[in-house]
Write a structure and sequence with these properties.
Blueprint: E1 4-12, H1 15-31, E2 35-39, E3 53-59, H2 62-70, H3 72-84, E4 85-93
Helix pairs in contact: 1-3
Length: 95
């Protein structure tokens, strides 16, 4: 079964609230065996609109990735992220 990935490109405008998101999301990530492949770090924009923070998270399957996003744990955390940042957040199936 192909893996599933979350890809987030965001600009954080409230760092204190974003810290609450990071902490609250931990429960969902542990429950669904999320593996962070990219979490911020240095980046170079080659094309298109740039965002200040980029995150790629790997899950064992796209079903796990979707379940994590819709879980009660992540739903609670997501409210902090949405209050603290703007950007794009997508679900992608791996090959």
């Amino acid at each position: 079964m192909p893996k599933g990935y979350w890809i987030a490109r965001i600009d954080v405008h409230d760092p204190e609230t974003y810290k609450k998101y990071v902490e609250a999301g931990r429960l969902a990530y542990e429950r669904y065996n999320a593996k962070f492949l990219v979490r911020g770090g240095n980046m170079e924009s080659l094309e298109g609109v740039n965002r200040s923070r980029n995150v790629v998270i790997e899950f064992n399957s796209i079903d796990d990735a979707r379940a994590c996003y819709n879980s009660p744990e992540y739903t609670a955390a997501r409210a902090f992220r949405q209050a603290a940042s703007t950007g794009e957040f997508i679900l992608v199936e791996g090959i």
